[in-house]
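Dear support,

We are seeing what looks like truncated structure output for some complexes. This example has two components. We would appreciate it if you could run it in full and send us the complete token output so we can diff it against ours.
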Amino acid sequence: MPSLKTLRTRINSVKSTRKITQAMKMVAASKLKRAQSQAEAARPYAERMERMLGALATAVAGSPEAPKLLVGTGRQDVHLLVVVSADRGLCGGFNSTISRFARNRIRALEEQGKTVKILTVGRKSRDYLRREFARQIVGEVNFVGKKRIDFTDAAEIAQRITAMLNAGEFDVCTLLYNRFKSVISQVPSEQPLIPASIPETGEVAADVGPKALYEFEPAEEEILANLLPQNLAIQIYRAMLESAAGEQGARMTAMDNATRNAGDMIARLTLNYNRQRQANITKELIEIISGAEAV
Amino acid sequence: MATFTLELVSPEQLLFSDEVEMAEIPAAEGYIGVLPGHAPMIVALKGGVIRIHKGGAITHRLFVAGGFAEITAERCTVLAEEAVPVADLSRDSAATRIAEAEAAYAEAAKGESVEAREAAMARLLAARARLEAASA
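Here is the complete output from our reference environment:
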């Protein structure tokens, strides 16, 4: 049985832990709100970009000179996986879920005899994947110490990927990230970047009729050459924002659980402490009484 | 007068969305005036000022550094990386941008890469357009 003093120290220590987890939960909640509104604000651009891209892609479809960013290199041998995770821990299974998802994907690709290269965005996935695939990691980006993600950050990553593609370093590029489904649930998802997935644009332009009716200035190919890198950047930007919102959501849930657990533990320890205290009092009383009787 | 919907979007947010009568857009090959019922078009933009007309007068002047626009009979969507009201532009910051862009171009001109040189050139042109817009 632990002494009263150790129990007291332990209760105090759990209490201060609870204070910390509670504060972290509140911080995560307010950051989540910000991240969510940032993700929502980015949506209109992505939607319109998709619509335009759909129209353009139809216009150049089948042309032998379609840009690599759109159709890929025509081979499927070397895969580049871009894994988006958080920079910090203490957010439940958020980072390990996406890292494990990436690991399974890498293994599956390697079994098919493909070469895999990895670009990690965020520190945690790098730390995890480095253990097993240190040699395949060709690049890493993190935003440690940065308050919010800007579009320029995503644009830089996109530039890097484009440069690698032009240098012929990979054939297929896939983005792996945690999709923000709700505050308590993030789903690891993958999205093909190169070759670009062109949205089925059925409703695109009811007011335009067949898409081929668009006029282009300058020529389709030229616009496409500018639009595609931009599209790549926006896809990455979107994934990064979703992941950031998911991270805060996951942290909030994790910290909420931790706070609750700490509360339970304090209740249990306090019960123990009081029992011990009473036992001590009883013991002392008995000692005094039996002492008095002996006189 | 008839109107159409003009939307101005940056990757970070929706900047402008309203019914307007006419918009002047700095397309890569010269300014385009968009009125309701315009033929469907997709254009690339260069650095310049978008002028928005409503009620027979110019209501907004916004500088964009580049981007794309999709025009249909009923709407016009401009995708710009950034858009700044002309009144908020300052000549000094525009001049610094030109200096930076010139340095970047000089750097790129030394290299072999055509793309890098073109990108630097586009940046320089956008910076010059910014100064012009700021001075006007």
